[in-house]
Request: fold
Amino acid sequence: MASQDFRVTIYKLVLLFRFCISCGLGDKAYYYLSNQTFLLTPFSLISAMGDNSASNGGHEVVLNVNDDASKKTEDSAIEHSVPLLQKLAAEAAGTYFLIFAGCASVVVNLGNDKVLTFPGISIVWGLTVMVLVYSLGHISGAHFNPAVTIAHASTKRFPFKQVPAYIIAQVIGSLLASGTLRLIFNGKSDYFPGTVPAGSDLQAFVIEFIITLFLMLVISGVATDNRAIGELAGLVVGSTVLLNVLIAGPITGASMNPARSLGPAIVYNEYRGIWIYLVSPILGAVAGTWIYNFLRYTTKPVPEITKSASFLKGPE
Reply:
């Protein structure tokens, strides 16, 4: 009986040792086997492995021989951080191409017997956002919108100290794009690509608030929660912009973005209803991100959930 128990014990140890080797923990298992032989249990080995390893996104187990995982993580973050100047350049460039492409579709439609049609303009805005998210999101977070930047900062997912610089870069990009369009189309005032309310100011304010809230709710879901499919962030956000333009475009111009309205307003000297587009999207975006925080149910703290989320959050 004792001999049978001995063989069973040895068999279990061999199986456990093979499992450890397959996980890259052969050295640790060998150490315990050589020092504790028959006193070793599967639970004690698993506990030992847990104390000396760190999980990397659930895909890789790394044995931390020096027991200094926090320092390694810190060093890695420093090595992969993006300089602020580079992020600002990405935000300015992204906002420039967003405003240029989107507003150009409006101007081309006005000057060519509405060849693009309104659904065509909506598609241009949505596709442009999608392309820019995938192109520049890993550099700056692909905000291209002061409302998004302020909303992320309000929930501490973006550093407050970088907010003014981001907003300045976004406004500069919008101004340059609007200036380029006015230069290309000979400054014709009939081709104003900005946003003005078609109805009352109150109606425009409420609509801009709702569609920006919707947009920010979607962004918060796909960009700040690691339970979402981050690879689809650009497609989802671009589709949301397309839907919002289809819904609200004829009434408010579907700005959702203070920089989108401010640039053309300054370049074309058309400020009618500008306060709506500066205030309502910011309030809507902040409300959207806080509503998602309320809807998000988890036992983990917010920083733990967002640390491996999509690039839309932006490198810090």
Observations:
- Strands lie at 53-56, 60-63.
- DSSP finds 13 helices and two strands in the chain.
